Amino acid sequence: MSIVSRIIAHPWCGSDDRVSPPGRLVNRGLHQSRQGRLHWHVLVGLVMLIAALPSQAIEPDAGWQEALQEARGQSVYFHAWGGSEQINRYLAWVAERVDEEYGVTLRHVKVGDIAEVVSQLQAARLVGRHDSGNVDLMWVNGENFAALKHDGLLWGDFARHLPNASLLRESPSISMDFSVPVEGLESAWGGAQLVFIHDTATVKSPPRSATALLEFVRDGGRFAYPAPPAFHGTTFVKQLLIELNAGKATSMALYDPVTEANLEAVTAPLWAYLDELHPLMRGAGESWPVSGEMTRQLLDDGELDIAISFNPNAASAAVANGQLPDTVRTYVFDQGTIGNTHFVTIPWNARAKAGARVVANFLLSPEAQARKLDPRHWGDPTVLDLSRLRAADKAVFAGIDVGVWSLAPGSGSVLAEPHASWTEALEAAWVERYGQ
Amino acid sequence: MSLPARTVTAMKPIIMLRHRGLVWLLVSLFMLPVLLGLCGTVAPALGFTPTFAPGDGFAQILTDPRLLPALGLSTFTGLLATFLVLAITVMALVCVHDTRWWSWMNAAIPPVLAIPHAAMAVGLVFLLAPSGALVRLVSPALTGWERPPLDWIVPDAQGWSLIVGLVIKETPFLLLAAIAQLPALDVDASLRIGRTLGYAPARCWSRLILPRLYPRIRLTLLIILAFNLTVVDMAILLGPGNPPTLSVLLMTLVNDPLSRAAASAGALLLVAVVGLSFLLLFALEIFVSGIARRRRQSGVRGHGFSALRVLGKGVVMLILSTSLVTMLLLLVWSFTRRWRFPDAFPAQWTLSNWSTRTDVLMQPALTTLIIAMCVAALAISTAIAWLELERRGAAPRLDGIWFVPLLVPQISLLFGWQAVALWAGLDGTWWMVVYTHWLYTFPYVILILAVPWRELAPEWGHAAHTLGAGDWRVLWRVRLPMLIRPLSQAAAVAVAVSVALYLPTLLIGAGRHQTLATELVTSVGGVDRRVVAALAVLQSILPLLAFVLALMVPRWQSRRLARQSTRSLTRTAVA
Questions:
Q1: A325, exposed or middle or buried, with CB in 10 Å at 0-12, 13-18, 19+?
Q2: Closest Cα of chain B to A149: distance in Å?
Q3: Residue B396 sits in a domain of what CATH number?
Q4: Which of B35, B48, B51, B127 to mutate to test the interface with A (most CBs of A within 10 A)?
Q5: Which is more confidently placed, B16 or B179?
Q6: Structural domains in chain A plus CATH codes
């Protein structure tokens, strides 16, 4: 079976009776692991007995006072992408604040790709570790959320019971994550949009569409994108896919679960495009930047003319930090670029669920959201409805200057993410074609 | 084996029994992760654990289209890098020995060895990239480049960057091992005899010294070969990404339950690759020694090529100085605010990379330091215990087995050990991480300590026994103080090894223990280059500090002893 068809056979890509339902898988896992544990008790004795003690359970909709009480003194392991130093520092600030305010110790576990954590949770489920898991809170969206939801690896509807959830904006991208209903299983954290950064000192008028980009590299423009499954790379490929199918009969297929037949039809123009683009890129399609951040670095070094970011305010932050010259500007393609919402969620086997809830609620507070929007700290768009805030909080948001280097408000529309199942199918197809 | 020790143990059968328990405890502590780890890799690969790692691992990995390119890349980089390491080591010995560069080279090796792999790899990218420091230094004045050239890329798709990194990092290791063997070979006498017989100096080396030296450094060479074929952190930082080397490919597979069987099967393939490479090396050895024997017997005297000598000297100096320059470059970047191409030097400097990022830097530094110190203490005390048991005749010499963790690919052992830890619910625990670090530091520590421990004249102990001291007192007051120099060196090596370890922390720590090594590898490509530089500087400073301390402690000790003896002398005189 090719990689692609194996992915398509993945349970949440449609019904397929070759895959056993998750319940059965879990039961077998439990049985096996009990035997394993018995064996291990003999070997490690007491240690295991202590580890196996059941932890106190709190419900996702438990009263807030109860959650606050239980959270005090807990250590929350927050697994979040650690690839951006600004975000890491923002989370360090969050850790300080939740410690002051609620007595919760927040530890940021920096991961390269959150899909690894999804796999870890699946592995934990297979060996039957239903409590005291290693992950208390995780940063997630899209196909990873879809996988967690499908496999029953999430705690429950905690998000709608957070006090600050009442401040959230009404938006389809907050209630549906890559066309998968959220149902309170994850709590919105921020918005994002695919943007491009260029240096006006070297490139006066950057390419504003997929075809213009191809023209640009033909004329010696320096361009490269991170190799999928790095998520900036995957998003860029999805952007191309939407644009190359625009106005065609295939364009709506992207918002339904992927099938082998429509994958082939929809991606045919994409492969033709990439086959032409890759040899002209920096690295000639053999060496790739590893992340969006790295394209930013290479733009500053002069090895690239265009950087890719998923944060409309990234350039302002980078200029303020001395990481980009102040001649850079941010722009999007004329037809718009992909945007989405990112979330945090709590796994079913989390050790410090109450603490994780308290942290998730703090992340939604006007204080935390305003600081997150400020390009000096991160520059990530808010998910709050500003009209629902108190006057003082509104004033804080109004006082934030995103700077001329950021994406000008109202320039270019936001395109919706394709259905979650497309992500993995596209990545696998891309790797099969270009990853060898 | 000393006589009094044997009498003591024979007289006290209970102690002997306790000793035997200790011997078994130490051996099983050491072998447990090795054996369980290998079982934990073999079982999923063969499909014995279908719920934990479903599917036919070998079928999956063998049909993976990335396998062949990854395998080719691993063997190409691993074999070529090892060959270059050996060639340059020989060149260093032949061309630098007996010149004024020799002492400089000897002084440069320990600090270069102390630089952790990840830090070195990061620095090399900063140095060699088209927009890197080397090009900046000569542009646009010499090159005319106003923008970085497009002619090469670091890391490149063919693996040359990785080879450069491996050669720079591993050559000092083999060189140190070779230099340590020279006194035993009485090189000066061999050179004198050779010259008297009319051989050029290079011929003296190839005819008289290298054939005797090679068997003594063979094991080190095998360790380097296994390392080069299977390294993960350097291959992530310097190797091609798409497809990566086999070990990096396996790392992307192991965390997904659906491909864990494939990862385990791949890890066994890696063992086979290493094994075959060892065989290849042995075959080459036989072939080369055959030729060498014939040439030795031919009696041709030949003459030296001074141009070659200069070239050899140049290559060796280049390698050692690149390491030091790389460190300097990291230091510069960590204090840089703006440094754009093609400026030769930073335009703006700042302290803020350090001062405003203390939380990002200090937390992993502290974790690294605490783990390293515990591991060093543990490794030193277990090594002393073992060597002391060995000296008292309670334990056999097992020098062979200590090498096993260094010869088995880390991935192949740790995939299984991680699976075992996961199964037992022990992954992510701090002591498991320390235990696994100990497994990889203990071999170095015991091998460093073994020779001085065995060679220390037993008469000192006999004298103390005669004066009424017991075994413990002899150990504590006589042997350990006399061996303070190798002990502190071994501790420094333990710290250096632990600080550089990436895979054990990553796989066993479940992401809960972020050391400078894991932090550095995750940060590269994403995090601000200036902060990455600061992390790399920190990672290099810790082992350097350990080595400086290892030099200072014996001096303080001897100064204190000198003071004490003067005092007691004065006291005797007064009395």
A1: middle
A2: 17
A3: 1.10.3720.10
A4: B51
A5: B179
A6: 60-190+341-398 (3.40.190.10), 195-340+412-434 (3.40.190.10)
